[in-house]
Amino acid sequence: MKITRQEVEHVARLARLELTEQEADTFTGQLDAILAYVDTLKELNTDGIIPTAHAVPMENAFREDEVQPSIGVENALANAPARAESFFRVPKVIE
């Protein structure tokens, strides 16, 4: 067994989780199975395999930044619930 019930209870305490007896037993078995599978994966020969962040090639979906004319103060503030001159008026949050 890779992980003990005491370790599961310790991690649950750190995470401020209250586990029942049944949950502690269940999680101990599940975490042990996960760690055993990780050990199985460690046995794979990964020589010559390039680490990747994505399984498929990715391209940037963002457009290039281009300078464009502004929408203007009047259009920007057209639906503002409150305004002060050319600014949005917001409730005071600092006293």
Please tell me about this protein's structure:
With 95 residues, this protein is mainly α. The chain has a domain at 5-42: Glu-tRNAGln amidotransferase C subunit, N-terminal domain (Histone, subunit A), CATH 1.10.20.60. The protein is 38% helix and 4% strand. The radius of gyration is 28 Å and the shape is flat. The relative contact order is 0.08.
Provide a quick synopsis of the model.
The protein is mainly α and 95 residues long. It has helices at residues 5-14, 21-42, 73-76, and strands spanning 83-84, 87-88.
Index terms:
two-stranded antiparallel sheet, 95 residues, Histone, subunit A, 38% helix, flat, 3 helices, mainly alpha
SSE topology sketch:
Blueprint: H1 5-14, H2 21-42, H3 73-76, E1 83-84, E2 87-88
Antiparallel strand pairs: 1-2
What oligomeric assembly is this protein in? single chain
Output the strand order for the largest sheet.
Answer: 1-2
Rg, rounded, reads: 28 Å
Proportion of strand residues? under 5%
Shape: flat
- What kind of sheet is the major sheet? 2 strands, antiparallel
Kindly provide the name of the CATH class of the domain at 5-42.
Answer: Mainly Alpha
Poorly predicted regions are: none
